[in-house]
Amino acid sequence: MPPLFISYPQVAQAIQGEHIPWLVVLSCLVALVSVYSAMAVAERVNASRWKHRRQIWWLAGGTMMGLGIWSMHFTGMLAYRLPFPAHHSLGLTLVSLLPAIAAGLIAVAAMARKGLSTAHKVVAGCILSAGIATMHYTGMAAMQLPASMRFSPTPLILSLLISLPFGIASIHCFHAARDLPRFHGIRLGSLIAATLASLAICSMHYSAMMAVHFLPEPGWEAIPHSAGHDAIVAIAVIVLASLFALTALASVLVDRKLQDSAARMQVSRRQLVDVIESMHDGVVLLDQRARMVMCNHAFETLTGVPHTDLQGHSLLRLNTLLRFDHYRGNILRSLKENGAWIGDVEVRHRAGHRFPARLSINRVRAEEDSAGHFVATLSDTTAHHNAQQRIRYQAYHDALTTLPNRSSLQERIHALQLASDVSGRHIMLLLVDIDNFKGINDALGQATGDRLLKALAARLKPWARQPSDLARLSSNEFALLYDGLSVTPESAMDQARSKARQVLESLNGDYSLAGERHSCHVSGGFLLFRGGELGVGELLKRAGLALLESKCEGVQRPCAFEACMVERLDARLRLERQLKTAVEEDQLRLHMQPQVDDLGNILGAEMLLRWEHPERGLISPSTFISLAEETGQIVELGNWVLHQTCQLLAEWQQHERRRHWTLSVNVSAREFQRADFVSGVKAALAKTGAPARQLTLELTESLMLGEAYPVIDTLGQLRDLGVRFAIDDFGTGYSSLAYLKRLPLDTLKIDVAFVRDLTEDPTAAPIAQTIIALAQTLKLGVIAEGVETIAQQERLLELGCRSFQGYLYSVPLPLKQFLALATRPCLPMTEPAPSQQ
Questions:
Q1: What is the pLDDT of residues 691-725, one digit of tens each?
Q2: pTM above 0.70?
Q3: What is the DSSP string of 148-201?
């Protein structure tokens, strides 16, 4: 065996080669690329979920690192130039690849394993360095050349030791820098570790080449060396090794992308499952044949059935859970044509209870040409259903009495009309109304009025065959339906009249309200009908006319509808329309009835309204005043009268005698209670310039009912202007003496009913005397209305009354005739013929 180390005398004869610089650089680069690729592959070992894939990546990474070590050595040897030809044994050269691959496998395994101890990292680094050295010197041994190799001891030992710190550092750095960020896809930790490993390979190789010496055999001759062939071989090796490394690196990048994508998909799938599980609505995944694949917990809760019992069953066949037999055909057709269906179903819980739900089915396609699957959602609509029921109940029932309302009654009438078309039997529609309900509310309070309505509804309920046959139509108006009456109109009318009379008798009488008894009078009107010849609105209108007729008669007995009622209503409506244009077309006239003292001197006059109709002539106020109050036109008429009166007062200020006369204007409760009444009086006085002290507003006692403060406040504002006030028809209402004392009044007018009976009824005189005494006590003036005879005047004088008004002095006259009458020194006191006021 030839000696290993070179002796000192042999150094002078030994030859050392030279390196081609660019090939040296390429050899280092191929080492760096190969080792980095191997480390990138090492990352995939841990990232792979399956064992066989981890093994494949480990083998690929170890082989890649071994090829990198071997390629660097082979390229470095090709970069080494000697003055004699050198060849490499193929077998031994290939054998040198084995320790490099073995070292690479151990290094990759150490890098891939997380939590590796420091000792294991040192051992792995030493094995990597040993593998590099073994590969190098095995490759050196494969050289065939006309010379023998000798090594210098010191450089040799240095070459064996120099790679150890770089190898250990590369393993440690790979683990320590694992969490460093990437830069354009390059992991900085792997790049630093690959650089250290490349330094271990290159430093070992080139330090070892510094230790080798070649002793030529005797008779050798230097030959010119061609670097072209070796360069081509070196480049080929470098290119192949780099391509292999880059291919492995590209595989790593692709796998990394795929793994990241798969991880994201897994996370998305898990998040989707979590979202579905957290939903309050039931969610079911169906295959293309509508068989259940999976469902969330909410669906199990809604149905009471675990998913294991549902899996594989067709949704359309789960009749025990979802009741949609009548929808089955529509569902299949809609899914086939539109890929979706939505509708209401009934869920039958396994525990036995049932509830409404909303079912929605939609097709989901992953690709355009795939059959896809279906997703169904089931929502509990119990709350919505109950809310709809409450809304419908509120829409069709009265809140106070809980009875059906007008809308419900209309539907019931329509249903009975359809039934009577078949049976031929008559139906009675009875409307009942509490007389003077507004007065009861005003006098006793709304709470008592509500109790009365509830009590009345309770008495009506036993008369209804069905709950929907009874309804509350308005404030105090109720309706009762009674079907199945005789086919013959005459017999049906007798039955209806008898039934209506019985109902009214049960309603009229005393009611116990909050521990007190109150008398109640009810009017009723009924209509007999059959079939659908008349609309529901017309039926209610005709029954209302019958009720109105009953209230007008005031006898608390039911009134049947008659055709003449429609004619009277039409006449009333015509009159109402014509009254609207009476002011615009100057059809209103003012008549004046004088007010005189005991000597016949005129003190003033009361303004009385007349309507000069172009067709019907002069119309009495009794014909249209009540109509105007009901329709609200009384406000417009009252404004007209007030302005005309103020205009007349302003004109009379230029006349010596007339400037002291007062003019009285009747004010209805509807006018007085308007918020702008005071401002209206102010405007009339300001516009005309009339003196407020000569204007007297005549009020009715009904204004004293209810709250006192608004009335007192309004009167106080008008009194500040100078306006005077009189109570008209005093003694016929519900005046409170305490209330009367607080009002800023000027005059009490004795009602005509007491004046008329002074000479015939013994009780009339004490009442009149009391009113006169009351006025004197309160320091108020008093006027007796309706004086028609001298005897009445004389009796009033005896009782202390000094002001009068009536036919005894004059009937109401137009302005010209009144002024002509006023020219006389005093009015004649002769008994006139009776005339209408």
A1: 999 999 998 866 655 555 678 888 889 999 999 99
A2: no
A3: EEEE-HHHHHHHHHHHHHHHHHHHHHHHHTTTPPEETTEEHHHHHHHHHHHHHH
